[in-house]
Amino acid sequence: MHPSRFRLATPVLSLMAALLPAAVRALPAHAPQARHAPGLATLINAYRAAPGTCAGMPATPVPPLAVEPALSQIHIATGTFLEPALERAGYPVEHAEALFVSGASEPAEAMQALRDKYCTRLLGDGISAVGTIRVADGWHVVLARPEKRELPQADGIGEETLAAVNAARAAPRKCGDEQFGAAPPLRLNRALDAAALSHSQYMAQVRYFNHQQKNGSVVGDRALRAGYRWRTIGENIASGQRTAQEAVEGWLDSPGHCANIMNAAFVEMGVGYAVNPARGTLYWTQVLAR
Question: Where is the signal peptide (predicted)?
Fold first, then answer.
C-alpha cells in the first residue's frame, strides 16, 4: 500500500465552510433573553403578506416565514457567530442574520421599528424562517434559510459514481504536477462497496475524518474483512458533498485523490456514503483495488 493512497480530502471539499459568512454584525450586549413572543413573528408574516410600501416605495407581497423554535432559543450577545450557535441548537443553516431593535416593549412597537429600519430584509426572498427573542431593552429577530438536507438515493449511487469516475479515466488528465494517460474503465465490486460503506458509517458515527480508524484499521484491513483479497489498493474519502458527482469532482480537484482515480493499476472500485444524524453531514469513501 503506497502512502500516497491515504491522503485526506483537502479543506475545499468541505461544504460546511460555505454555509455562512464567518462573522455576524456585532450587536450590543444585553441581559439574558426573556420570553419568546410569537406575536412579533405573526406581525412579521402579516407585513410580508401585505407590505404596502418599503422605504417609501410600493412593495410586493412575499410568502410567510416558518416560525422555528430553534431560532428563538439562542443567546445573542456582542460577537455572536450565528452559524455555530444555530448548529448547537440543532438548526444548521445556509444563511442567517440577526436584527435588533431597542426601546420597544410590545410586539407592535417592535414591528414598527423593524419596518422603519429593516423593511428590505424582512421582505427578502432568500429567507424562509424566523424566530424572535425578547430581551431587557428590545428584541432580536433571527431570519434564516435552513440547510438543505436532501440525501442522494442509495439505489444507483455506485453506478452514478462509477460513471463519473470512468468518464474521468477515459481521457488524459494532469493531477497536480503528475500527468496521467487515459485508463481503462473500472468495474464495481460489491465487497469493495461493503468496505467503503463500513468506513463511511464509522466516520459518520464518530465524526472522525481520517483514513485510519481509531483502532488502527486501514483500507486494506477493511477490504480483507469484506472478503476482497487485494494486490494493490487505495482509498479516497470526502466530507460534506451532497451528491456522488460533487464527491468525484472534489476528488479530481485534489492531486492525491485524482491520482488514485487515474491509476491504471486499479481495475475495480466500491463506494459508500453515510450521514451523521446530528448534523446531516455526508461522509464518502471510495475504495479502488486490483
Answer: 1-31
Per-residue pLDDT reduced to its tens digit, 212-265: 999 999 999 999 999 999 999 999 999 888 889 999 999 999 999 999 999 999
pLDDT digits (tens, 9 = 90+) for 105-121: 899 999 999 999 999 99
- What's the CA angle centered on 169, arms 227 and 192, to 5 degrees? 10
Distances (CA, A) of 168 to 132, 189, 233, 240: 49, 19, 19, 21
Phi (first) and psi of residue 87, to 5 degrees: -65, -40
Q: How far is CA 24 from CA 77, 96, 138, 162, in A?
A: 11, 9, 19, 41
Signed CA dihedral, 179, 160, 92, 106: sign only: positive
Cα separation, 170 vs 163, whole angstroms = 10
Q: Is the model's pTM score more than 0.85?
A: no
Q: How many CB atoms lie within 10 A of CB 3?
A: 6
Beta strands in the chain, from DSSP E residues, in sequence order: 53-54, 57-58, 66-67, 93-102, 129-135, 138-146, 173-175, 178-180, 187-188, 233-239, 268-275, 282-289
Q: At what angle do helices 157-169 and 244-252 cross, to 10 degrees?
A: 30
Strand pairing of 57-58 and 53-54? antiparallel
Burial of 209 (0-12, 13-18, 19+ CB in 10 A): middle
What domains, with CATH codes, occur in the chain? 40-146 (3.40.33.10), 157-289 (3.40.33.10)
> Quick one: average pLDDT of 160-172?
97
Which residue is it, cell 465487497? 191
Q: Which residue has the cell 410590545?
A: 106
State how far the Cα of 227 lies from the Cα of 212, in Å rounded to an integer: 19
